[in-house]
Write a structure and sequence with these properties.
The structure holds 2 protein chains of 2 kinds. By secondary structure, chain A is an alpha/beta fold. Chain A contains 11 helices and 6 strands. In chain B, the strands form 2 sheets. In chain B, strands 3-4-5-7-6 form a 5-stranded mixed sheet, covered by helices on one side. Chain B has a two-stranded parallel ribbon with strand order 1-2. Classes of the chains: A alpha/beta, B alpha/beta. The interface between A and B is medium-sized, with 18 and 20 residues.
Chain lengths: ~210, ~425
């Protein structure tokens, strides 16, 4: 059991208890909440390392939880966990500050791996999320306003492609002959670009797909 | 300063309870609130305003014109028909009724719900309200806000007679004429009817135009109008019942549609899952059902076009997933309309996915497709047993024909990387020609 303090937010009682049972052996689960207000209050009180947060909940959903907690506790890290894999949900959660996004069909071992990664300060990209990001940053758009910020480096793109093809970080590292640490660095850089930028292309990509 | 704030606070509290205090606890009057301090900034709306806004709403369910009378009746605990009669009577008292009605309409908002039920006013209070109303009428008459004795009194009789007949308290469940006549309010019905007829007759006698029609025509009209006023209630109820019934029927049809769909899909799948011991089969069933339910719930207009590469590839993968009980994860970047080239590529990809499903023994197959302006790439990866591509006999038609042949005929190429440790990855690539 690691010393990662974990908090769970989900309005589905059944799913919540299932995840709790799966993760209780690996992590210290400091609490759980079924709605937005309770979650915000409890997270502030318990100060967990990682919060597993559902996207769709009454009262503002995961976005409201992340937004409110980030103001007071910027060191709390969020991993979004949802049944939805719609691009608008994924991108919105990442832009709000979530360090990763996984769907609820994820296997228990993968979920443990993802939480550990987030606790270490790393980002978690599922194959689908990697696909969305590649799509959003695709080269088909005209020259961006801020090339420094808006472009993915060829290496970052290559890493994302490997993840989209279903490989784990370890496999990606071996296939590209780099260290796992380097893979993690690339992925974190991509996440930062996604979160920081007032992005030209991203906005257009979203408009094209009728997301905004 | 602090004590003044305190006293203002308590005065406000007393104000809130003032209605209760007067009616239920006749005691010492609450201290009057201190005069508002002089100030040149805009004062917030006074408390009575909020009280009026929050306690008096137009009724949504009990409305003839706009629900003002219904809302007022609900607030004071009187049957709404009497409140309407009062408004009608006041209209003939110098138009006061219309003015008050418009003012209330402007000040109130539509009720969000009509769930709040006020305790009906007890009989003696009701009598008091009636006498007060009579007093108001006489006062208005004194001020000459009055359209004439010959008009206002008969109108009042007609209005309140009709109100007594229409009083819907006991008739709530009865909608037929017989129910209404047989209801416990028969006495009220008779008195109301008599008052109504008397008022109508008096109206005819005093209004010149109508009196000129002669007694026979007058009697017929009086009877007809009286009949209409009495049974209008019944017709009214019937019409609103018809509307309710129609709405209920549409709703139940929608429910039936949804139930039928869920029965054919979700319930069948759940039944299948309960009868299955094979964990992998269970997962596949659940995944297939999830996909179908998603497309049923959200699949109207949104998402990629029906003839797009993404849709076609996902559909092909879904079919293999169902046939071979293995999850196939499809991720695509970019999209395009399907042409001959892409069709061939999808067919080849499908063959590669099938191979992986049959031979790899992996728990999951990943498919990643990327479309750019110049080329389209598809990677099919599994983490299964792998094989030695060189060791495959050349007469095995699967890889040769269905994959290499198909892609090759459309200027594409195939690369297969496989090792026992890493599983297999098939990379299909095809240049794209500008349309």
């Amino acid at each position: 059991m690691s010393d990662v303090r974990l908090f769970l937010v989900d309005d589905h009682e059944l799913f919540l208890s299932g995840v709790k049972a799966e993760l209780a052996e690996q992590f210290e689960i400091v609490g759980s909440a079924g709605d937005v207000d309770e979650a915000i209050a409890q997270i502030r009180a318990t100060r967990p390392h990682v919060v597993l947060v559902d996207v769709h909940m009454p009262g503002g959903g995961g976005l409201a939880v992340i937004g409110n907690v980030a103001e007071t506790n910027p060191d709390v890290r969020f991993l979004a966990l949802s049944v939805s894999d719609a691009p608008e949900d994924v991108i919105a959660m990442i832009r709000a500050g979530a360090r990763g996004y996984v769907t609820k069909s994820i296997s228990p071992t993968e979920l443990v791996d993802a939480v550990t990664r987030i606790a270490d300060g790393d980002a978690v990209f599922s194959p689908r999320l990697a696909g969305f990001v590649l799509d959003a940053f695709a080269d088909v758009f005209p020259q961006p306003a801020d090339p420094e910020l808006d472009r993915l480096t060829p290496r970052e793109k290559e890493v994302l492609r490997q993840i989209a093809r279903g490989y784990t970080y370890k496999q990606v590292a071996r296939r590209l002959s780099i260290s796992v640490k380097t893979v993690e660095t690339h992925v974190s850089a991509v996440l930062r670009k996604l979160q920081l930028s007032s992005r030209h292309e991203l906005a257009r990509w979203a408009t094209d797909r009728r997301i905004v | 300063m602090g004590s003044q704030g305190q006293s203002r606070l308590s005065a406000g509290g007393a104000c809130d309870n003032i209605a209760v205090m007067i009616t239920d606890h006749p005691g010492p009057a609450p201290p009057p609130p201190p005069p508002p301090p002089p100030s040149d900034r805009v004062e917030p709306a006074p408390a009575w305003w909020h009280r009026l806004r929050s306690s008096l709403h137009r009724s949504g369910s009990d409305r003839v014109v706009s629900g003002v009378a219904g809302g007022l009746a609900r607030r004071v605990g009187l049957p709404s028909s009497y409140v309407r009669a009062a408004f009608i009577t006041l209209v003939f008292a110098g138009g006061i009724g219309a003015a008050v009605y418009l003012a209330l309409w402007a000040l109130t908002i539509n009720a969000v719900s009509d769930d709040v039920e006020t305790e009906p006013l007890p009989d003696h209070r009701r009598l008091a309200v009636g006498i007060m109303f009579l007093g108001v009428l006489l006062a208005l008459r004194g001020f000459e806000l009055w359209f004439g004795d010959g008009l206002v009194w008969p109108v009042a009789l007609v209005a309140f007679g009709t109100a007594a007949v229409w009083d819907r308290r006991e008739a709530k469940n009865g909608t037929t004429a017989r129910d209404i006549i047989a209801s416990p309010s028969r006495t009220r019905l008779l008195i109301g009817g008599a008052v109504l007829i008397a008022g109508l007759s008096r109206l005819f006698a005093s209004v010149d135009v109508l009196a000129g029609l002669g007694p026979v025509v007058g009697a017929v009209i009086v009877t007809a109008v009286g009949f209409m006023l009495v049974f209008g209630h019944w017709v009214w109820n019937m019409a609103s019942d018809l509307a309710t019934e129609r709405r209920d029927r549409i709703r139940s049809e929608e429910r039936a549609d949804m139930a039928a769909h869920l029965h054919d899909s979700v319930l069948q799948t759940l039944a299948l899952i309960q009868r299955t011991d094979d964990a992998r089969r269970m997962v596949t069933l659940a995944r297939a059902q999830e996909r179908e339910l998603r497309s049923w719930l959200y699949g109207s207009g949104e998402g990629p076009a029906a003839d797009s590469f993404t849709t076609a590839l996902t559909a092909a993968a879904a079919k293999i997933e169902g046939d071979h009980d293995i999850p196939v994860e499809v991720v695509t970047v970019g999209d395009a309309a399907v042409d001959d080239d892409l069709n061939a590529l999808i067919a080849a990809a499908g063959e590669a996915i099938t191979n992986a499903a049959k031979h790899s023994g992996a728990g999951r197959i990943s498919v990643y497709a990327e479309l750019t302006d110049d080329a389209v790439d598809v990677w099919i990866s599994d983490q299964g047993s792998g094989f030695d591509p060189a060791a495959v006999p050349t007469d095995r038609r699967g890889i040769a024909d269905s994959i290499r042949g198909r892609v090759g005929r459309h200027r594409g190429s195939v690369e297969i990387v496989s090792s026992p440790a890493e599983g297999t990855e098939v990379h299909l690539t095809m240049p794209r020609v500008a349309p």
